[in-house]
Task: structure prediction
Amino acid sequence: MANSKLTNARNAKNDEFYTQYHDIQKEIEAYLEFNPNVFNSKTVLLPCDDPEWSNFTKFFAQNFERFGLKKLISTSYAPESKLYRSKYEPTLFEVNDPQFDEYKTVKNGKIFTLTRDKSGDGKIDVNDLEWKYLNGDGDFKSKEIIKLRDESDIIITNPPFSLFRDFLAWVVQAEKQFVLIGNMNAITYKELFPSIKKNKVWLGATNFNKGMYFKVPNDFVYTDSYNFERVQNGEKVNRVPGVCWFTNIDHGRRHQHLPLMSLIDNLKFSKHKEIKGKDSYDRYENYDAIDVSFTDAIPNDYEGVMGVPITFLDKYSPEQFEIVGMCENEDLYKLKTKVYTTAECKQAYFDKFHKMGTYDLNASGVVLRDGILEKVYQRVLIKHKKKTT
Result:
């Protein structure tokens, strides 16, 4: 369910989701709290953005001097090149500028830069942004934007939902620092999870369990998949659950250890009915690990491998846990102890649903419950680095 709204956004090519100012502020302040100089003398690039509407651009422009930025660059994607096209009307800001071009305003992207006190009021802020049309449409894969990527130090944006996988690879290829918004299920992507496992990428500081409200265009159409219509501060917004920040910039929350109970205490006192009163945790039939279906039910004294929900990574501290791998079809980390045959998958389906079909037991961890093989949801395999008390 957490993935459904972004999936539908992708299928509908409806990528016009703008991040709200307070969400950006909350996340960025966490990095500054951990390292006040994190942006000092840095060039920050905000691609896949619409600088005239973007709260990313407004936020970093307003805080240019406080952060000690060297340069701010923000680029937009041409309206006629977008897969999802809403009715585009140039702003008065653009129309009243001598360089306004009716053709370029829909065919070309724009670039906004901030480096100096253009207005002469003694400070550098949003009023000093300078802009021009890009030569191309602003596609992040174009040579024009790649050049901007390569000259920047940090890349920050909410990339289009439909392009997140490609955009992530584009950023990682450049070996830059970054802060990106994406679906939590991106954790399972083969382009991302190996970096999470190696502690080269992690989740941001903002807890994603409540989802986020994004500003949407006025002509945004709500469907059965987009049924959280809201108006906040006079603007049309839509709630998307399961959204999180991905980054390789450090922050303090990821170094906080989870307070946990022992295995025995979990079995006796857990608030989860799936665990309380059991004799033991379920053990996988195809991995040498136990299944822990809730992050707060991780036993602090179990020394083996544990399968935990991907939402665990929102609480993951590299000083407390080691990420071993993931329950997956491909078995990239060679952790499976059993691979099921087609006949076994068909038999498992019949046992569970009492009709013919195939139950893909190799796609995840499998436990035996009441004599029936059951797949569990996607799991990250972890173990303690040391006992926690």
